[in-house]
Design brief:
This protein has 2 domains: 330 residues, B-lactam Antibiotic, Isopenicillin N Synthase, Chain (Jelly Rolls, Sandwich); 79 residues, no CATH class. The longest helix is centred in the middle third of the chain and has 26 residues. A hairpin with a 2-residue loop joins strand 8 and strand 9. Helix 2 packs across helix 7. An 8-stranded mixed beta sheet has the order 1-2-15-12-17-10-4-3. The protein is globular, with a radius of gyration of 24 Å. It is α+β, with helices and mostly antiparallel strands. Keywords: Iron, Metal-binding, Oxidoreductase.
Length: 448
C-alpha cells in the first residue's frame, strides 16, 4: 500500500471529548490487554535517568568538557534517555511554548476540527497512531507538525513552515466571508473579527463580535451585528475585552512567532548534541550531522495532550515504542509526570526536573552507531486527577539519504547490524503499524 492510499480505518473519536463527557468507564477500544497495562506500584529499584549539565561542553577546561562527553556517552549507551540542564534555551520561552499549546487543546472542538489530520502525513490534530483496524487505542490527542527541511535558513523559513500552527486565528467563511475567529481562553470568550466591507459598509476598519461559551460543547451567540450602529457598539465592547487581555498578557507572542522562535532554539540544541554524540563515539565532530544531511535535515513536532482518565490502570497515554527518527527533545509537563522509560524489566517514571529537557536517542542514531547508542522503549501513563501536556521535537535525517552504520565503527568482530534504508522508507514502514515497542528497529537487523 502506498502512503497516499492510507486512510483511518475507523471514525476518529477525540479523547478529550470522552474525558469531558463525564464517563466513569473507558470504551473497550482503549482497554489494553492485561500484560500491557501499567502497574501503579513503584518499581523494585529506585532509579532515575541521568541529569547532565551541558554548560561544560563549551568549557575552556578540557577536563570538564571530557567529563561531560563521558556522561553523554554513558547515558546514550546505558539509558538512551537523559535530562539536560543549562542547555541554552530560555526558560521563559519553554514555559510560553508549553502553555500556548495547552491553550490549543482548550479551543472549541469545531475550531480544532479544522486541523483534523490524516495518516498520509499525520500533519495536524489527531487522536490515533497506526491504521490497523481494531487495534487498541491510546488515551491521548495530539497536534503534529512538520517543520522546514532546511532548518538553517533562519526563523523566517521556520515561521513560514509553521503557518499551519496559527490556531488562535483562522478563517471562518461559514460565518461571514472574510471574518476571522479568535478564541481567548483567558477570558472564556470567542471573538469574531468582521471587516466592515464584508457587510457592505464602506469602511476599512474591523469589528469584533463576542460569543461566550455557555456549554463546553456549544457556543451561544450573544451579539450578531446587523447594522452599522450595532457594529460600532460591538467594536467598543470588544476593544475593552482585548485591552483586558493585553493587560493580563502584555508579553504574549503570536503562536506562529513563538513556534518559530522555539523551534530555532531547539535546532541549535540538537546541533550541539549531535557534535557531542559524534565525538563520544570516536567520530569526527561533524560526522553525524553530515550523515543526517548537513543543513538539509528534517524536523517535526508532536504536542501531546493526555486528558484525565477514569480508569488509568487499564490504558496508556502512549503505547510502548522507540522513536523512529534521530533524536527527540521533550519538553514535559512541569507539574505532572507520565513518561516511563524501560530499564531492564522495570518501567521507570521520569520525574520533571525544573527547566530541563528530556533527550532520547532515536532509531536512526541507533543504526548509525551500529547499536552502540540505544533507542530505548518508552511509554506514557495517565491519571484520573490531572491532565498533562508535552512537546516532543523530533530531529531527523533527510528523508532521502541512506542511513547505515558508520563505516568507522565497523570492525571484523563488529559487523554492520543494519542494512541501508532511507528515513522515508522506515517512516512508511512504522506508520502503518503504530507504536510497537522495539520490534520495528530490531526487525531490520541483518542476519548474523
Amino acid at each position: 500500500m502506498s502512503l497516499q492510499q492510507i486512510t483511518w480505518p475507523e471514525p476518529i473519536v477525540r479523547v478529550q471529548s470522552l474525558s469531558n463527557s463525564g464517563i466513569t468507564a473507558i470504551p473497550k477500544q482503549y482497554i489494553k490487554p492485561p500484560s500491557s497495562r501499567p502497574s501503579l506500584a513503584p518499581p523494585a529499584r529506585d532509579l532515575h535517568i541521568p541529569v547532565i549539565d551541558l554548560s561544560n561542553l563549551v568549557s575552556a577546561e578540557p577536563s570538564l568538557r571530557s567529563e561531560t562527553l563521558g556522561l553523554v556517552s554513558s547515558a546514550c549507551r546505558e539509558w538512551g534517555f537523559f535530562h539536560v540542564v543549562n542547555h541554552g534555551v530560555d526558560h521563559a520561552l519553554m514555559g510560553r511554548a508549553r502553555e500556548i499549546w495547552r491553550e490549543f487543546f482548550y479551543l472549541p472542538m469545531e475550531m480544532k476540527q479544522c486541523y483534523a489530520n490524516a495518516p498520509v502525513t499525520y500533519e495536524g490534530y489527531g487522536s490515533r497512531l497506526g491504521v490497523e483496524k481494531g487495534i487498541k487505542l491510546d488515551w491521548s490527542d495530539y497536534f503534529f507538525s512538520s517543520l522546514s527541511s532546511n532548518l538553517n535558513e533562519g526563523s523566517e523559513k521556520v515561521a513560514k513552515s509553521s503557518s499551519l500552527l496559527q490556531v488562535t486565528r483562522q478563517t471562518a467563511a461559514r460565518r461571514l466571508p472574510g471574518c476571522v475567529d479568535c478564541y481567548v481562553r483567558d477570558l472564556d470568550v470567542q471573538l469574531i473579527v468582521y471587516p466592515l466591507m464584508c457587510l457592505g459598509i464602506a469602511d476599512n476598519h474591523c469589528v469584533l463580535t463576542k460569543l461566550r461559551r455557555s456549554d463546553p460543547a456549544e457556543l451561544a451567540i450573544e451579539q450578531q451585528p446587523s447594522s452599522a450602529t450595532e457594529l460600532v457598539l460591538a467594536r467598543a465592547e470588544l476593544m475593552l475585552c482585548l485591552n483586558e487581555l493585553r493587560r493580563r498578557n502584555p508579553a504574549r507572542l503570536a503562536i506562529e512567532e513563538l513556534v518559530a522562535e522555539y523551534s530555532n532554539e531547539l535546532v541549535k540544541l540538537c546541533e550541539k548534541l549531535m557534535k557531542a554524540f559524534s565525538v563520544s563515539l570516536g567520530l569526527e565532530e561533524d560526522y553525524l550531522q553530515k550523515a543526517f544531511g548537513g543543513e538539509e535535515v528534517g524536523a517535526c513536532m508532536r504536542v501531546s495532550f493526555y486528558p484525565k482518565c477514569p480508569q488509568p490502570d487499564l490504558t496508556l497515554g502512549l503505547s510502548p515504542h522507540s522513536d523512529p527518527g534521530g533524536m527527540t527533545i521533550l519538553l514535559p509537563d512541569d507539574q505532572v509526570s507520565g513518561l516511563q522509560v524501560r530499564q531492564g524489566d522495570d518501567w521507570i517514571t521520569v520525574k520533571p526536573v525544573p527547566n530541563a529537557f528530556v533527550v532520547n536517542i532515536g532509531d536512526q542514531l541507533q543504526v548509525l552507531s551500529n547499536s552502540k547508542y540505544k533507542s530505548v522503549e518508552h511509554r506514557v501513563i495517565v491519571n484520573s486527577a490531572k491532565e498533562r501536556v508535552s512537546l516532543a521535537f523530533f530531529y531527523n535525517p533527510n528523508g532521502n539519504i541512506l542511513i547505515e552504520p558508520a563505516k568507522e565503527l565497523i570492525k571484523e568482530d563488529q559487523p554492520p547490524l543494519y542494512p541501508p534504508m532511507t528515513f522515508n522508507e522506515y517512516r512508511l514502514f512504522i506508520r502503518t503499524r503504530g507504536p510497537c515497542g522495539k520490534s520495528q528497529v530490531e526487525s531490520l537487523k541483518s542476519p548474523r
